[in-house]
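Hello Y.,

Per our agreement to keep a running log of every chain we model this quarter, I'm adding this entry. I've kept the format consistent with earlier entries: sequence first, then predicted structure.
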Amino acid sequence: MKKSKGPIILAFAAGFMVCLAEIPATAQTAGARPATVSMPRTADGKPNLNGVWQVLNTAAWDIQDHTRQLGVPPGLGVVEGNEIPYQPAALTKKQENFANRLTADPTEARCFLPGVPRATYMPFPFEIVQTPNSMAIRYEFAHAVRMVPVNGSKHAEGIPPTWMGDSRGRWEGDTLVVDVTNFNDQTWFDHAGNFHSDALHVVERYTMTNPDHVLYEATIEDPKVFARPWKMTMPLYRRVDKNARLLEYECVFYLQEERYKNAPFK
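Predicted structure for the entry above:
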């Protein structure tokens, strides 16, 4: 008679649970940094963020949970709690944006700069160049560039609002904190029509969890649009493939070419 495998499976499961219980709680937490991991550091002792980075999510299409659509893969959201606290009038505007997204999205439909934080989770890599006094962040999409002083300087005053805002950084322990203000109201957070006003204030946090991963957090505040601040979180992955670098993506050229092909005078 064939013996039942039930006792064997139960014994294995019990042993596994005992082993799991012995693992420190911090090691069971997603993204936790084991105490034995040695972080790469620059000459001044800061975490070394130099390199090419990229996300592996679908936040560029929709920062909230979403199902599949034509040209859009299904995906899990990056908004904590999966809720964006729109004020009533702003929610109506967001719904209008979604209905007109194929032609109204400033980035996907018009090739304008994606803004912050959307530039980080576009489906294109970006590069960080780090010095003791500043961080330069170059994005493959639309040749966007951000200069982030980390020398204690304050936000510039009296300058026109911009697509990418004005960034000022500081170190809190091993976390790079970037405070971004002075935005215009022309960018969206994603292709689903989530938007902001010119009162947008973003605080980004870059925390290395191991040599090739960064936990990225962006806290969003905009009293004209949202009832309270809210936050996105996601991992960033260092591109470790040989000769990793930014390539050319000429969004405006491709857009003009497409419009020419569909022009009525042809």
